Records
---
Amino acid sequence: MQPFAQIERLERAEVLDRPAAVIRSTVQRLLSDRRVKDALHGVWLGHPLHAALVHVTLGSFLSASMIDMVGGKQRYSSGLIATGLVLTPPTVAAGWTDWSASHPDQQRVGLVHAATNGLAITCYVGALRRRARGRRGRLLSLAGAAVSGMGAALGGHLAYHLSLGANHADRVRDLVPPGWQPLAALADLPDGTPVRRAAGEVPVFVLRRGQEVTVLADRCPHLAGPLSGGEVVGADGDARVVCPWHGSEFRLDDGCVVHGPAIAAVPRFEARVVNGTLEARIVASAGAPTA
Ligand code: FES
């Protein structure tokens, strides 16, 4: 049996749903300021902030435990534990922020991931406290490493198996057929209401506003929500589509993220009308159409 196969059972552990609901509403209440929430998701970074921070935080803790394991100098180990503890609050805050906008199976695994890491941090705090009393605290440091490893395995499952933090729209560029693709007769498109059409086999978001047409991938980069089911807000250069699942906002002009939890832009298409038919072709990257 694969050693980590049991983690999948956590995804279906509905017993975790009640505590998850309580914690989720608390986190959402604490994150009422959208600028703080966006910052913790990593919108400003274009990368999940939790994933960026966790490497340094966990790396500091594990390095400390390695020093303790080989009998290295305690002041180096203690310095690394202290570094990990200083970085713990922003790492935890970013993690809970991402967790609060995720699917139920991800939240179940995430809850155990957080509890495991909480136990690991308690071990490291205990190690420092013992050292303050003149003891070595070595066993607690090693226990912290063992528990951190379990927490990291759960975090890896969330990222690599359940794709929390991945860009769910990036592959659209590979799936769409090259060149111009017919989408619909322009006259059949409603004015001001997004609809779903297909470029080849790939669903696309189409919004006609008068003679202007916006075409984006119909797949939110956060967790693949259907943008064509979302609301359009704002006007002119500030017009945005709001994802119906967790409220990410994308600028219609260029697909860029205005508000998270998404941290990546939604793929954009060029549009043209030929003999009354709307056609679109994928833009390879900012402003560069494909051949
Ligand atoms: S799927 Fe989560 S914001 Fe779009």
Note: Helices lie at 7-11, 17-30, 34-41, 49-69, 74-100, 104-132, 138-161, 172-175.
---
Amino acid sequence: MRVLLTGGAGFIGSYLARRLLLDGHAVTIVDNLSTGKRKNVPDGADFIELDLAQSDCLKFLPSVPFDAVCHLAAQSSGPVSAEIPYYDLQANAASTLLLSRWCLQNHVPRFLYASSMAIYGNVESFPVCEDIICLPRSYYGVSKLTSEHFLRLASQEGLSVTSLRMFSVYGPGQNLGNLNQGMVSIYLAYLLRGEPVPVTGSLDRFRDFVYIDDVLDAWLGVLQMPSTPSLVYNIGTGKPTKVHELLAAQIAALHLPSDYPIYELPGSSFDQFGLYADVQRSKAELNWQPVISLEKGLEKMVAWATSQKKV
Ligand SMILES: NC(=O)c1ccc[n+]([C@@H]2O[C@H](COP(=O)([O-])OP(=O)(O)OC[C@H]3O[C@@H](n4cnc5c(N)ncnc54)[C@H](O)[C@@H]3O)[C@@H](O)[C@H]2O)c1
């Protein structure tokens, strides 16, 4: 299979690139290196440095017959989306519109999209399933939901589309220097530096933390399917973890004292209070199941992080 992979210099995209290459696929990565790193692009992948937020970007794509596009490039930070919402719209939603049109015009049959739990907003019943009405609370969530709708329209025109609504993905390789995205990696960065951990919002908020290898299995499984019965799928563990429980588990994994200093800062109006996934549809229709517990996943991530020379 020949895959055009956007965001392949980032955390999730670089994992996907390595696995695709290992499985014998040809991979072309497009990334503007805004949060991703050139060193994350694996040997064997073609690399095009390109900003997908620019309206004329697609003319720089090679005219080879791709079998699929995996669109993971995005401005991925909720706080940044509040600072520069128009850029967020261009980088996240407009890029999806352009790429999906490009696929239709160039006979690329398959499109997988990196959607997010951020599309849901604050919900009242848990776990959250794919069919509820989505009222995102952040510009980022609006852009991701808009992308899903652009893809729904493209699917009506014949593009085979699947959006994976990933919950809070974590694991080795996450950017510990980026304090704008990734709850697990942000707290871990402070803990590794021995600094008190600032928590923006309540310690009682909860999330669904899903390990990178489980997420990768979902992407690879879906890519093998010419189409999926549904357009959107939750990719989480189906288990809620409160922020203070996450911190306690990270502190334990690092063998730090249980009274390690943590302080709460006022929350953001764009933040979601709590969410965890209903993964019944993903299990039934994708034959996918998360297997890594939070404790095991954090153990692997901490082992990786402590082996790094500097944070
Ligand atoms: N990490 C999570 O918990 C999570 C959860 C849900 C959804 N997602 C989505 O998954 C995807 C990958 O997330 P990640 O955690 O690996 O983030 P990341 O920031 O590590 O990766 C995103 C990549 O996209 C690139 N990029 C950003 N804007 C671009 C642009 N305009 N043109 C080209 N490249 C651009 C970045 O340089 C980076 O390499 C994103 O779409 C993100 O929104 C992530």
Note: Residues 2-169+209-235 form a domain with the Rossmann fold fold (CATH 3.40.50.720).
